[in-house]
Amino acid sequence: MSRASSKPAADVPAPGEHKADHSLKCVACGASMDNHVKVRLVGGQLRACAVCKTWVYYPRPDQTEQSSIHDTPDYFEHPYFKLRRTLNPAQLRRCTQIFQRIAGAIDLSGLRGRRMLDIGCDTGAFLLAAAQVTGVVPIGIDVNHKAVSTAIGSGIEAYCGTLETAPAHLHDFPLITAIDLIEHVSDPGALLVAIRSRLCPGGLTYIETPNIRSTVYRIGRWLSILTAGHPAGLYKRLFPEQHIQYFTRESLSTLVRSCGLEVVQLGERHLPFEDIAASNPVRAAMATMQAIDRLSGERILIWSVLRRPQSLG
Hints:
CATH architecture of the domain at 62-211 and 247-307: 3-Layer(aba) Sandwich
CATH superfamily of the domain at 62-211 and 247-307: Vaccinia Virus protein VP39
Strand order of the largest sheet: 7-6-5-8-9-12-11
Number of strands: 12
Helix content: 25-40%
Order of helices and strands: EEEEHHHEHEHEEHEHHEHEHE
CATH topology of the domain at 62-211 and 247-307: Rossmann fold
Structural class: alpha/beta
Shape: globular
């Protein structure tokens, strides 16, 4: 008998055992990831942290790779963004609802005339809505050159790049928004630390991100295991390659606190029917799954208002 076959391989889990993968760390709590595959995709897989339940994409891209994915014509022209690129009633409604959540932590009248930074601003439609709703001075940053150029053309002060490399004068903000963003970045902890450093003492940040416990992702997980991630187009829509981590309320809170920010409010919300950029049958399916979420107590999106402490201490 050869040496290789004389005993079980160290990296092969026993039946029913989920062995930790020490080469891949959880982006929220730093624990080693479980070898158990949650979602099989054609280009990779999603694994879960056994400690805080965050899902992490593997193989793990770095920030340069992530930025290049987001700075392509295909990404810019994705149908998802069409509903969010004009200052229409739906955009104003969405913006108003976001600021109603923020109002639980700050007097919105105090924002009038002050600068607000939106990270991942795209073409700036949300910033224009925010300026109209609250009177803020809009500033944006995004990694997509065409989106930033469009935002600048709309009269917004905007910059191309990441927050970590943004100009030094972009600091001392009373409010920073990062909506549908943290699931995209290779180092979400570094993003939150950068946000903290750009806020004024006591300043707030508002974030939104998908809730991996929602019904749509649970069903997607089961189907991906059964079909080995085929057809690829279906799973690319549900688990797009740009999304490289998915949080729970608890894991997001863990990450936030480890980065020196305070959780002021934490909640979940559903995705309105009119905001789903898809065909009517897909919209109907999403509405059905969100109805199940209401029964289970989950929602498809997590939102949170965070505060920089008065002293970074």
